[in-house]
Write a structure and sequence with these properties.
The protein is an alpha/beta fold and about 290 residues long. It is about 45% helix and about 15% strand. The protein contains 10 helices and 12 strands. It has helices at about 50-65, 85-95, 115-125, 140-150, 165-170, 175-190, 200-205, 235-245, 250-260, 270-294, and strands spanning about 1-5, 10, 30, 35, 35, 45, 65-70, 100-105, 130-135, 160-165, 215-220, 225-230. Strand 5 and strand 6 form a beta hairpin. Helix 6 runs antiparallel to helix 7. The longest helix is centred in the C-terminal third of the chain and has 26 residues, at about 270-294. The protein is elongated and about 95 Å long.
Length: about 290
């Protein structure tokens, strides 16, 4: 069980595979001819290229729940970037066809270079998935954490739990504030499909009127569940109480005085005067009724 700093947790088992052959990669040929190898899937020797393809596809389709596609920007050895692209496109296409969540690891000798960062952004846009640029020979704990987080965020979202202040739930269902908040939540949730989509949704909600802050409270990666907490301004709380009660509630002092029924409460004298007036009117009605009977 691995715990991520932002609250996500997951269990992991790593399965490696050869991957698809890249033009110019060493080890594919021996004495000028393609190497032949034995595999668990055939009772005869097959070429290294075929064995790599068979093994890679079986791992992708049958033995894994999520994939890490490792590619390169051309800075690691003499193989240029364009020679990685066909194998990269093929494996990503197969992952997308079978609906397997995945993220891309871009291996670079200079992961902080602008060219590497630009390629990383291009890969994200091209394939619609996460991409983390690292130097695989110098991986830090933070690099590993970012790769795992990027991979796990590609899981489909099965449940989104949004926590609003309890006083909002206590409002009548047709109340303008409650309706506005619910409509905003429903609209922003339309574009959510994967766990990583929760973060853009939180950004969208922060721009909504009457919302103070939005935070991703918890992520259950393996179950595809995300919790979002929405906080509203305290002033809005007092304003809503004032509108619902008919009295001016400006702060906690006014609220406590009003609920305790003390003379310092807003509207206390209004209540007393109204009660006294109602009592006098009732007394007059009783006297008039008695005179009528006599």
């Amino acid at each position: 069980q691995i715990q991520l700093p932002d609250g996500g947790s997951f269990s992991v088992r790593l399965i490696d595979c050869v991957g698809y052959m890249v033009k110019g990669a060493s080890g594919q040929f021996e004495d000028g001819v393609e190497r032949m190898v034995t595999t668990p899937w055939f009772d005869k020797e097959i070429s290294l290229t075929e064995a790599a393809e068979q093994g890679t596809y079986k791992v992708i389709a049958e033995h894994s729940t999520i994939g890490l596609v490792v590619t390169c920007d051309g800075t690691i050895c003499e193989i240029p970037r364009e020679d990685y692209v066909p194998a990269e496109e093929r494996v990503i296409r197969e992952l997308q066809e079978i609906g397997k969540p995945f993220t891309v690891v871009l291996n670079s000798a200079e992961p902080n270079a602008e060219s590497a960062k630009a390629l990383c952004r291009s890969i994200r846009e091209k394939y619609g998935t996460g991409c983390v640029c690292v130097n695989c020979l110098e991986l830090s704990e933070n690099d590993i954490s970012e790769i795992l987080k990027s991979a796990l965020c590609e899981f489909p979202l099965s449940e989104l739990d949004v926590f609003l202040p309890s006083w909002v739930d206590a409002l009548p269902i047709e109340h303008t504030l409650r309706t506005s908040l619910y409509n905003g939540l429903c609209a922003s949730a339309q574009s959510i499909h994967r766990i990583r989509d929760v973060y853009p949704m939180a950004d969208t909600l922060r721009a909504e009127e009457n919302i103070l802050s939005v935070s991703v409270a918890a992520l259950q990666m393996g179950r595809g569940i995300a919790d979002i907490r929405v906080d509203l301004p305290r002033a809005l709380y007092y304003q809503t109480i004032s509108e619902q009660s008919g009295f001016a509630i400006r702060d906690d002092g006014d609220l406590m005085a009003w609920t305790a029924g003390t003379e310092a409460a807003p509207g206390y004298y209004d209540i007393s005067l109204r009660t006294l007036t109602e009592y006098r009117l009732e007394e007059i009605r009783e006297k008039e009724l008695l005179q009528y009977k006599n």
